Amino acid sequence: MPPGVIPNAILGGVPDRKTDIPVCGVLIALFAINGFIHSNIFKRNKAQGRLFIFSMMVFGFCMSRCVTFGVRISWASSPTDPSLTIAAQVLLSAGVVLLFIVNLVCAQRILEALHPATGRSRPVRYAFMAYYASIIVVLIMVITTTVQSFKTTNPSILKTDMDVRKSCGIWMTLFAFSSIPVSLIAFFTPSESPPTKLGTGSMRTKVAIVCGVSVLLTLSVAFRTSIVFLPTRPITDPAWYHQRPAFYTFTPMLELMVVITLAALRFDQRFYLDGKAEKEREQGKDMSTEGK
C-alpha cells in the first residue's frame, strides 16, 4: 500500500462533507466563542494590573482547536489528500497539551500555597520544570512518529512508530492525571508552615476545580491512548470507538467542558498570585537557594 493511504480504521474515521463539515463548523464557533471569553478575561485583568497568562494559554488552545476542525473540514473536502490527513492527526494531539500544563500549574500553586516550604524548594520547583519539559518532548515524539508513519511502508519502522506512540500516550495520560494526586496530597497533608494566600475562594473549591478538570482531560486522552493498544481494524470495518460519535464525545465535547468550566468558575481569580503572594513565593525560592 502506498504511503499516505490509511489502511486501518482511525479515531473519527475519514470525514465526509455531509456529516463532518456542519459538526466541525459548530465546534469552530464554540471554540472561537470560548477563546474570545478567555481573551477578554485576560485583557480585563491586565487593565486592572493583574497579569494571568494562563487565560491566554486557554485562548491559544481554543484557537488551535479552531484550526484542528478547520483542517478536518478541508480533509472532508479532499479525503485523499495525504497532507491534510497528516495535519489533522497531528493537530488533534498537539493543542490539548496546553490544558494539561495549565491544570498542573494550578495544582502546583495549591501545593505552594499550602506547603510553602516544600512547594517552593529548589528540588520541587526543578522537578516540576523537568516534568513540564517532558510533555513537550513527548509531544514532539508523537508528531514525529505520526508524520513518519504516513511517509513509509517499512514494517519495522511502522512498528517502532507505534511502540513510541503507545509509550507517549501512557505518559500523556499520566501527565493529565497527575494534577489530582498533587492537589489532593497537598490538601490533606498537614503543613509544618503557615499557608499563603492564593487568589479568591476556598482552597477546597480550588482542589475540586483542578481534580474535575483533570478527570475530564484524563478521560479524553486515555480514550485516545487505549485505541492504540486495541487490535487494528480495516478502515471499512471500524469499531464503535473509531466512529464519529465516540470521537466528538471524547475529544471536543470534553475539552469544551474544560474551557467552559475554567471561565465559568473564574480560575483566573482563584489561582492568581497578587503582588504580596508573588513576593512571598520569590522569598521562599530565595530561602531554599540559600539553604543549599
UniProtKB/TrEMBL annotation:
InterPro entries: DUF3112 (IPR021460). It comes from the Eukaryota. Keywords: Membrane, Transmembrane, Transmembrane helix. The chain crosses the membrane at residues 20-39, 51-74, 86-107, 128-150, 170-187, 207-227, 247-267. Coiled coil: none annotated. The keyword Zinc does not apply. This is Uncharacterized protein. It comes from Terfezia boudieri ATCC MYA-4762. The lineage of its organism: Eukaryota, Fungi, Dikarya, Ascomycota, Pezizomycotina.
